[in-house]
C-alpha cells in the first residue's frame, strides 16, 4: 500500500483483526479498531462498538472520523461462533451468529459507504472463512453467515464499482490463533493432514493479503474471494 489511508478494522482487539490492524500501522496508515472489550495494537485508536447495533456503529464511525478523518478502508472482521449440530441448534444460536457476522458487516459497510461515495474511493474487505464455501459439520449458522459475505461483496461491487470502490472477500483457513491453540494435539495433527500446505497459517499471512487488497495495486480487483488456507478449500 503506497498511499496513506484512514483504516477501520472491526474486531481488532485479538487474533486476525489485531494482526491486520498491526500491519496497517506498520505501513504508515491512520488506523482505528472497534472492540467490545480490550484494545487494538499500539498506534491504533480503539473505539467501543457492538456491530449488532446500528446506533453503536454510527457513533463509533463518528468518533473515528473526528479523530482520523473520513474512513477510506474498512475491514469487516468482527465475528462469533456458536457451533452446534443442526438438531440442537436454537433459533438464537442461528440468528445471533448471522446478525453479528453478516448483519454486522452490513451495518459497518453501509456506514462506511457514505464517506467512500463522497470521496469516490473506498476499499471494503470482508473477512469470511474457508468454512463459508467448504461447509463444516455443526457450523450451519457460521458457514451460512460467512458464505453470505460473498453475495454481499458481489452486490456491492455491482452497485459501487463505478465510484472507485472495491469490495472483496478474504477466506482464511486454519490460522494459528487462541482458538486453534486450545485444540487437542491429535486434532491439530488430523487437521494438518487435510491441508496441502501441511501447516496452519499465521495471522500475518492473512494481514498481508488484506493489506494488498486495500492498496493501490488492487484497484481493479473487486467481487473476488481470496482464500488464505494453504490449499484446503481448492475449487470452492
Automatic annotation (TrEMBL):
Annotated Gene3D superfamilies: NAD(P)-binding Rossmann-like Domain
Coiled-coil zones: none
One Pfam family it belongs to: adh_short_C2
InterPro entries for the chain: KR_dom, NAD(P)-bd_dom_sf, SDR, SDR_fam
Domain Ketoreductase: 5-178
SUPFAM superfamilies per UniProt: NAD(P)-binding Rossmann-fold domains
Family of the protein in this entry: Belongs to the short-chain dehydrogenases/reductases (SDR) family.
Name of the protein in question: Beta-ketoacyl-ACP reductase
Highest classification ranks of the organism: Bacteria, Bacillati, Actinomycetota, Actinomycetes, Micrococcales
